[in-house]
Design goal:
Blueprint lengths: L1 H10 L4 H14 L8 E5 L4 H16 L5 E8 L5 H15 L3 E5 L6 H8 L3 H19 L4 E3 L4 H13 L3 H4 L5 E2 L7 E3 L7 H10 L10 H4 L2 E2 L8 E2 L7 H10 L18 H12 L5 H16 L8 E2 L6 E2 L5 H8 L4
Parallel strand pairs: 1-2, 1-4, 2-3, 4-6
Antiparallel strand pairs: 5-6, 7-8, 9-10
Helix pairs in contact: 3-9, 5-6, 7-12, 7-13
Bound molecules: adenosine monophosphate (AMP) and zinc ion.
Length: 335
């Protein structure tokens, strides 16, 4: 028993050979790269998208596929953005790929839109990123856009949607989502890869990567601007169990459920923890689960899809009459 558990733990280490074969097999099996493709990889400066860019380039070169791999970075206009742009430039240079940088401020003032709409910065930022990731590469002649989303991004999203009964969103968890109309085909070459594998891969190739996830998530204090209040996070260096023990020691009543579904965005880490626990018994449990989700979606995804409309203002794809970015822009009085 003890021996078995030890073997299982040892197997949780990173095997770069199996990782690379797994990513290449994903690209081949799901036809993520096809002849004549122009693929733009959306690179944030982090390890995951850097690994996606590098592995797609390696694949095209190794199998001599007649396809181009390029990079797209979105400068979000935050304090840390110039540093990220610099890292991405070094990544593109190291890999010998063409890089296009788009500036979010040319489409929307994220902070002002968040303030005017009351939507969290992350939600506005996500909307403008999705908008640019589809529009810009398409206008540059792309046939597909790739992201660095990894297995745990999808599994955390999966459980969250399952708990919230948003089953239709889970059908989008696939290595490739075919484009329709002005919507570009999306590919996710790292859907069966773990974040630590992406990290080890970038390290092994000596690729520069950013380690900070988002400045709005990690600073002890974010200064306010205009009507935006200054945010302070006094517990940034505290552990959740410490906060819990403290409240208990003071006899303070606390709620145990974080939201009605119990699995909001903040529960990402808990889902990862749950999967890590399951991997102690079966080191490939996470991979099997991911394969199961993709297999289910491939077999049972409904053929009928929501129609893609064109935004009345900018002409970009949307499910409603006006796209999210134009709606936010109109709140700011922009034309
Ligand atoms: P995230 O939503 O930050 O976890 O990022 C998911 C994926 O979106 C990354 O793996 C990248 O492919 C892409 N991405 C995120 N931020 C940017 C950015 N600023 N520029 C280009 N691509 C990005
Ligand atoms: Zn629009």
């Amino acid at each position: 028993m003890l021996v078995q558990i030890r073997v299982a733990v040892a197997k949780q280490g990173v095997d770069l050979g199996s990782y690379r074969r797994r990513v290449f097999e994903t690209i081949r099996r799901y036809r993520l790269v096809e002849m004549g493709d122009v693929i733009y990889v959306a690179v944030s400066g982090g390890k995951d998208s850097c690994a996606a860019l590098s592995l797609l380039k390696e694949y095209v070169e190794e199998y001599r596929v007649d396809a181009e791999v390029k990079a797209l970075h979105i400068n979000l206009g935050f304090g840390y953005s110039p540093k990220l742009e610099e890292i991405v430039k070094r990544q593109a240079e190291a890999l010998g790929v063409e890089l296009h940088v788009a500036y979010a401020k040319d489409y929307l003032d994220i902070l002002a839109a968040s303030k005017a709409s009351g939507r969290p910065i992350c939600s506005v930022c996500g909307a403008v990123k999705r908008y640019i990731m589809n529009k810009v590469p398409r206008e540059l002649g792309a046939t597909k856009v790739a992201t660095g989303h990894h297995m745990y991004d999808f599994l955390a999203y999966y459980f969250k949607n399952l708990a919230g009964q948003n089953h239709q969103w889970n059908f989008k968890i696939l290595p490739k989502v075919e484009g329709r109309g002005l919507l570009l085909t999306k590919i996710r070459p790292l859907i069966f890869a773990r974040p630590e594998e992406n990290e080890a891969y970038c390290k092994s190739k000596g690729l520069p990567v950013n380690e900070v996830c988002c400045e709005y998530g990690i600073l002890p204090k974010v200064e306010g601007r205009g009507l935006l209040l200054t945010k302070i996070r006094p517990l940034i260096f505290a552990r959740p169990e410490e906060n819990e023990a403290y409240c208990k020691s003071k006899g303070l009543p606390v709620n145990e459920v974080c939201c009605e579904y119990g699995l909001c965005g903040a529960a990402h880490a808990e889902v990862v923890e749950m999967l890590r626990a399951a991997r102690r018994r079966d080191p490939d449990f996470d991979l099997k689960l991911m394969r199961g989700v993709v297999d289910f979606n491939t077999r049972f995804r409904p053929a009928e899809e929501e129609p893609v409309k064109k935004c009345k203002i900018c002409g970009e794809p949307t499910s409603g009459e006006v796209c999210t970015v134009c709606r936010l822009r109109s709140l700011l009085g922009a034309t």
